[in-house]
Amino acid sequence: MNHVEIFRLLFYCEIQFSRMDPMADIPFLTRVRRILPELHPAERKLGELVCNFPGELASYSASELADLADVSNATVSRFVRRIGYNSYEEARRHVRLEQASGSRLYRGAVKDSAPRALGSYEESDIRNIQDTLQALDTAEIEDLAQALLKARKVWVFGFRAGAPLANYLQWQLLQVIDNIVALPGNGQTMGEHLASIRSTDVVLLFGLRRRVAVLPDLMSGILEQGAQFALISDEGMPPQSEASWHFRCVTESPGPLFSHTGVMALLNLIANRTIEAAAAEGRTRLAAIEAANDRLNEL
């Protein structure tokens, strides 16, 4: 088994808890929705609850979930068996794995309708920034900045929540790197771009929850092309040794959405250090950009 195959195997282990179980790849909610019309009234009542708030199964014991749904403990036991689990704990482990994938539906709670104080978001965001930046190795940031400036071309790949972040980082780095592109664009597929990557290129790749299915194949493809890549992920992704740089950002939030303040703090640091590392050549390009802005009277 070569290093690419090992890398892909380790990545998929994050979202699959058992290759031995033929039901393991069927998502929890898919199981519930398939069987919901066939359930008896009490089981259907429980099924409707977990369809709307699947994360509750990860948060509560079987007895607590029974109380929450106003059904018996026996109903909970029958329900988890009907959807293909041997025990409540097995179902709970599966839900926790899917909860870690980042689905907003899994972050809702039955008893969580009251709005949270603004201070809780402020405290969480500040903590995310601090924890993200404190975990960084300064030498890695400096090494990445130099690699970006020396690259033939810089590619910035971002999907879902990572798409606007990729565009932001590309826009900032464009001030000192003239051959940099943010992808994919509207209607674009990745094959054309992957085939164009060279060993002298650097790729900045966002792998934030919820991660797209193409991500492990894309990372493997970048490795096969011989390019270095920096992976920017949330803290839920295990360290990826095959990445030249892997920055894991803290994304905790008191609300149903993940917070990306820590990610933005990282991008701010990368962009600033790269511009500073560009030194005199960078200042020459910045001066040319300012002159063009004056000529076009855009600002």
Automatic annotation (TrEMBL):
<dbReference type="InterPro" id="IPR009057">
    <property type="entry name" value="Homeodomain-like_sf"/>
</dbReference>
<dbReference type="InterPro" id="IPR000281">
    <property type="entry name" value="HTH_RpiR"/>
</dbReference>
<dbReference type="InterPro" id="IPR046348">
    <property type="entry name" value="SIS_dom_sf"/>
</dbReference>
<dbReference type="InterPro" id="IPR001347">
    <property type="entry name" value="SIS_dom"/>
</dbReference>
<dbReference type="Pfam" id="PF01418">
    <property type="entry name" value="HTH_6"/>
</dbReference>
<feature type="domain" description="HTH rpiR-type">
    <location>
        <begin position="26"/>
        <end position="102"/>
    </location>
</feature>
<dbReference type="GO" id="GO:0003677">
    <property type="term" value="F:DNA binding"/>
</dbReference>
<dbReference type="GO" id="GO:0097367">
    <property type="term" value="F:carbohydrate derivative binding"/>
</dbReference>
<dbReference type="GO" id="GO:1901135">
    <property type="term" value="P:carbohydrate derivative metabolic process"/>
</dbReference>
<dbReference type="Pfam" id="PF01380">
    <property type="entry name" value="SIS"/>
</dbReference>
<dbReference type="GO" id="GO:0003700">
    <property type="term" value="F:DNA-binding transcription factor activity"/>
</dbReference>
<dbReference type="InterPro" id="IPR036388">
    <property type="entry name" value="WH-like_DNA-bd_sf"/>
</dbReference>
<protein>
    <submittedName>
        <fullName>Putative HTH-type transcriptional regulator YbbH</fullName>
    </submittedName>
</protein>
<dbReference type="InterPro" id="IPR047640">
    <property type="entry name" value="RpiR-like"/>
</dbReference>
